[in-house]
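Hey, quick one: can you model this chain's 3D structure?
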Amino acid sequence: MSYITLNTQKLAQNYNHLNNIFEKHQIEWAVVAKLLCGNETFLKSLLSVIDKDVCDSRLSNLKKIKELSPETKTVYIKPPAKRLAKSIVKYADVSFNSELDTIKALSEEAFRQHKTHRIVIMIEMGELREGIMADSLLEFYAEVIKLPNIEITGIGTNLKCLNGILPDREKLTQLVRYRRIAEQTFKKKIPYISAGSSVTIPLLDSGNVPEGINHFRVGETLFFGTDVFNDTYLKGMHRDVFKLTAEVIEIHEKPMIPTGKVGKNLTGESPEYNQEDRGKTSVRAIVDLGVLDIDVKQVTPLTEGIEVLGASSDMMILNITDEEKDIKVGDELDFGVSYLAVLRAMNSDYVDKKVVSTEKLKKISEKATA
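Sure thing. Here's the predicted structure for all 370 residues.
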C-alpha cells in the first residue's frame, strides 16, 4: 500500500522559523490545518508542536481537534452554512462571517448554549471570494453589534485563493482605515485585522504590511516552506515535511509508443506521442497509486533519472530506463509532493498516513512551545 509521511521534526522547525518571523513583527498567527483533512494521526503530530489557534474550513475537522485538544482555540475560516449554527458554536470558538442572517442564527444558538461566539467580519478586497462590500461595512456592523452573545473580534479579508489577486500595501492600508472608521463610529475597539496568509509573509520584511495588520492565518508556508507571493521558497524552511511513497508492482521493457487506435483516456485526454520514438523501447515501472490518490502533475520522483509518464485510476507509470538496474519489484520509491498532491492523498482512503521522527516528539514539542 502506498503511504504519505509527515516529518514531525521538520514541521516543528518550520513552525519555530515562522514563529520567529511573526514575533519579530509583533504579529499573532494561527495555523490553518485543513490540508490534514482531520486525520487523527497527523493532527496529533501538529498539535504536539504548536501553541496556536487552529483554523479549518471543515466542521468535522474542528470537532476532531476539540476531541484531541479541548483547550485549543478553533477558528472556522469560511462563511458558515446557516443550518450548521449549532455545531459552529459548539466546535468553533471563532467563525468568519459575511451574512447577517447567519450571524443572527449564531447569536440565537450561542444564547442557547450559554456562550459568547466571536466572529470576524470578512470584507471584499478585490479577490471576489467571500466578504461584504466595503461601503456596507458600517451598516452591517451596526446590525451585528446589536446581537446578543456575539462578539466582533476582528475584520479580515481573503486574497490569492480564487482569482490570484495579490496583497499589497494599498489594500492592507485600506483595511486598517476600515477598522479605524468602525472603531470611531461605534466607540468600540476591534482587536484584530486578520488579513495575512502565506502569500502575505514576504511583504513583512519589505515593509509592505502596515501597522495594524496584526493577525495571519498560515497553512501552506508552514507545511511546505513556500514563498507564495513570489512562487518560490523561503530560506531556512523545509520543503519536504511530507513525502509520498509507493511500491513497485511491475517492471518490464516496453515500446515507447502504444499501438492501436487512440481514443480518450480515463481523464478525457487524447495523448500525443513523439513519432521519433516509434520502434524504441524503455523500461517502465508501475507503482501502486493513481489518479484516485494523487494528481500526477503534482508529484516529483526523488530518485534522479526517473520520469512520471502518466497514470490510470490506481496505477502510475514511470520511465526507469536510467535506473533499472537498481530497482526491482517490491521496492519502494519516494516522491516529493505539492500542496495539491498532499490534499488529494489525504482525501484518499487508499493512501496510508504515517508520522516519522516520533521518537523525538516530546523534545520537539517542548522546544516549540518554550
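One thing worth noting: The domain at 242-337 is CATH 2.40.37.10 (Lyase, Ornithine Decarboxylase; Chain A, domain 1).
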